[in-house]
Amino acid sequence: MIDPDTLAPAFDEWSSSSFRLEALARYTVDFEQEEFEAFLRGDPLPPPNPPLFEQWFARLRQEHAEGKLRSRVHVIAGPLTPYLHYEIDWAYKANAAAGEDIRILHSTSWETSPFGKQPPDFYLLDDERVILMAYDSAGHWLGGDIITERTEVAGYRRLRNLALDSAVPLADYLAALRRLPVLPTQLRPPAEAMPA
After folding, report:
1. Is the pTM for the entire model greater than 0.85?
2. CA-CA distance, 194 to 196, in Å (whole number)?
3. 121 near 85, Cβ under 8 Å?
4. 3-state DSSP assignment of residue 27
5. pLDDT per position as a tens digit, 81-97
6. What mean pLDDT do residues 83-112 have?
7. Edge-to-edge strand order for the sheet containing 168-169?
8. Separation CA 104–CA 22 (nearest Å)
């Protein structure tokens, strides 16, 4: 496995398309922590974006203007975790506004998903190179591997196509999410948090 620092430049080595498949219920990323905590507090809007985010959004806008396609599908099984709710409702919206094509594929379980089991997290660059991602159980990125062998890459193209064909655009998913009822039992604190 290639460590994150060594692997990082490979994410920029594409010219026409960069596809990302995400399949974890939580990603632990240091630079998201402050914004995630604001979301959990119930703050009405994301805090102002620091310069790091502004540089990222400028890059997405530039790619879009140049006709480059950056897309992702987040595959979800089961209920939304607090992190997924944050990611979809706050983090993804800014990326989508800057030009990234983001879609959601939400199933009740991995078995009922189009994949039949949890798919791997990966990037597919220019349809010819895969970066297979590795994470620990808490969602920290550990690094990954680069795959260029044609037969293997073809398998990841099939996963990409299945994800894109089965997912819904972010705006449609958010609209459906807002129409769902919130049940009173969902607003109660967990039993262990109740005073004795």
Report:
1. yes
2. 6
3. no
4. coil
5. 999 999 998 889 889 99
6. 94
7. 141-147, 129-135, 122-125, 17-22, 69-77, 101-107, 168-169
8. 10
